[in-house]
């Protein structure tokens, strides 16, 4: 049982590592800006808004992207978006939860 769990964890780590190689920190940062601008929509709802949000954020100076980075954001799947912003989402939810308790 223990070895099966370690294999599953190892596979997840490899999957995350593959995505981090394809989509670097710059893509992640831009995605977080998009996510925050959309008031933290789920990735399924955020994905169709990206073609609208990108030009608006660039026009207002909130985001500066080159064509390659914009292309990566436009072709990214919602599942990949979830993986890339998972850590940010956990921190944001923890902060919101702490604010509610005060």
Can you walk me through this structure?
The protein is mostly helical. The chain has one domain (24-101). 81% of the residues lie in helices and 0% in strands. It is built from 6 helices and no strands. Helix 3 crosses helix 5. The chain is globular and about 45 Å long. The model has no long low-confidence stretch (mean pLDDT 83).
> Element order, helices and strands?
HHHHHH
Q: How many individual β-strands?
A: 0
Structural class computed from helices and strand pairing? mainly alpha
Mean pLDDT: 83
What is the overall shape? globular
Largest sheet: none
Q: In percent, how helical is the residue content?
A: over 70%
Number of self-contained structural domains: 1
CA(first)-CA(last) distance: 42 Å
List the helices and strands and how they pair.
Elements: H1 2-22, H2 25-37, H3 43-59, H4 67-75, H5 78-84, H6 86-101
